[in-house]
Amino acid sequence: MMKLFGYLPETLFKPLSGPKKHVYARLLMRLYERVYSARILETPLREEVVKQIEIGLSEFGIGSMGELSEGDPEEDQTTSQAHYLAYYRLRDTGWLTEETEKWRTYVDMNPDAFMVLGAITDFGNSRVRVAGAVVDVKNNLEAANREPETMAQGLANAHDTALRFARSMRRILAGMREIEDRILGNPNAAAILRTFFQDFVDGLLIADYKQLKTSNNPYRHRRTIASLAGDMLADAQCLGKIARAYIEQGVMAAGATIATAEERVIAELEKIKSVFEDVGPFMDKIEDFRDRLERRIRTTVHYMDVMGEGSAERIVRLIEQISKVDSDEVEIRLRSPDVALPITSLALYTPPPPKAPPERTRFKVPKQDPYLRAYVQATTEFDRMVRVSDQKLLEFARRQMQGRDAMSSSEIEIQSVPDLFAYRALPNLAAVGRSVRLGEFTIALEKERTSNDWIDVTAFRIERTRTSADAA
After folding, report:
1. Computed from CA positions of residues 410, 411, 417, 419, in that sequence, does the dihedral angle turn out positive or negative?
2. Which of 30, 44, 295, 459 is the S-S candidate for 450 at Cβ 3.0 to 4.6 Å?
3. What average pLDDT score do residues 286-307 get?
C-alpha cells in the first residue's frame, strides 16, 4: 500500500475529499465506464470528455456552477460553467492529462489513476464465484504440472487466483456478523426480510452458492487441486523445471538464483494446497451461519406477526370507551362465570424463595493420564526416526556401499522405515544441480525413474569419490 503514494499524484484524492466528493466520484466512474474502459485503444477529444461531464452533471441534478463550487475563489474564476469547472478540477488534480496534436487536444486518464478506478469498480461486483475460482486454479495447475518448461506461468496464475479466492471468502465471514446485527436490529418485519434478501443473499452471499450443492459443480475438484499440489511438492524434478522456467520467463526478478526460484515455487504450491484444504470447513461454517440466521429471522418475523395488543392495553381501551358512555349503568356481558374478582392474599404475587448458596467443596487436582508419558515418548521416537539429516543420509550410503565404488538406485534394498525416508531424500538432495556431494560419495540424478515395493522416485547413482589418498 505504501507504493500507492509513490505512483499517484499527491492531489489525486482532493476532489474525493471535498464537499462535492460524491459528485466527482460518480463523474469519474462515468468517464471510466463510458469513455476510457470502453475504448481502450482510442484517446478521446477534450470536447467528448467535457460533453460526458455535462451529461453526467445534468443527470445528477446540477445545472449551475454554484451547485458545484466548493468555496475556492481562484478555482471559481476559471469558468462560469459547471461542466468546465468539473473538467478543470479533474485535470488540475491529476486525474486527466491533456495532449495536443496539431490543432486538436486529446484527453487521457492518468494510467495509475485508471488502475485505481478499475479496482474500485471491482468492488461493486465482489460476490465470489467459487466454481469459477476452482476451475481457474485447476486448469492452471494442471498445465504447469503437464508442461513445466513452457507453462510455468500457470502456477503463478493459480497462486494469485487462490489468494483472491481466500481473501473473498474471508470477506464473507467478516461481513456476515455486521449484516446479522443490521438485520436483527431492525424493528420492522418487512424491513428485516428486505434487508436479509438484499444485503445478505444478493449482496454478500456467494453468487453461485446454490449451484455448489449440485453433483457436477467444479467445486468438487477442490480435493483434486490439493492432491495435485502435494504431488508437485514431492516431485523434485518438477520443482526444478518450474524454478528454471520462472527465471527464463521473467517471473522472478533479474538476478534471481535457482534456489530462490525454487523457494517461491514451493511457497506457492503450499499456499494453494492449504487454501483448498481449508475451504471445506470454511464452507461448512458459512452454511451453519446461514441456517442460524434464517432460523432467527423466521422466529423474529413470526413473533412480530402474532404479537398483538396485550391484556393491559385492552383493559385500558375498554375503560376509555366506558368513560365515554353517558348512562350511569352499563351492562357488560362476560364469557366467564359470574364470580368475584380475586382479592384475597392468595392472589398476590409471591416471590420465589432465595436460592441456597453453593456447597463448599475442596478442589482436587486431576490425575495425570498414565498413558500420556508413553504417548509423548512414542511420538518423539517416531519423529526422531523419520527426520532426515545429512549424518543419517551418509550412514545410509555407507551401509549400502560396503565394498563397492558405485551403486544405482535400483540396487538399493530398503529394509526399514528410516531406510525409506533416507532413500526418498537422496534424489531431492541432488534436485537443484543434478548432483551433490555427500561425505565421500557423490549423488547424481539420472533421466529414468526407479520403482520398488516401497516408493517410486527419480533414478540416481551413488559413486564413491576418488581422492589423492585413494589413488596412492
Report:
1. negative
2. 459
3. 73
Distance (Å) of CA 333 to CA 229, 305, 324, 330, 336: 82, 29, 18, 10, 9
3-state secondary structure of 174: helix
Q: How far apart are CA 307 and CA 299, in angstroms?
A: 12
* Predicted local distance difference test score (pLDDT) of residue 337: 56
Which tens digits make up the pLDDT trace of 41-68? 678 888 888 888 888 888 877 766 666 7
Runs of H (alpha helix) within 93-152 = 111-123, 130-146
Q: Could you tell me which residues come within 8 angstroms of residue 193 by beta carbon, excluding any fewer than 6 positions away? A: 297, 301
Place of cell 474471508: 170
Q: What are phi and psi of 104, to 5 degrees?
A: -110, 150
How is residue 201 annotated by DSSP?
Answer: I
CA–CA dist 158, 312 (Å, integer): 66
Q: State mean pLDDT over 230-238.
A: 88
Nearest by Cα to 205 from 279, 284, 286: 286
Q: Report residue 277 CA to chain centroid gap.
A: 14
DSSP state of 18: S
> Beta-strand (E) ranges in 51-209?
96-101, 104-109
442's enclosing H/E stretch is strand 441-451
H/E run at residue 462: strand 456-464
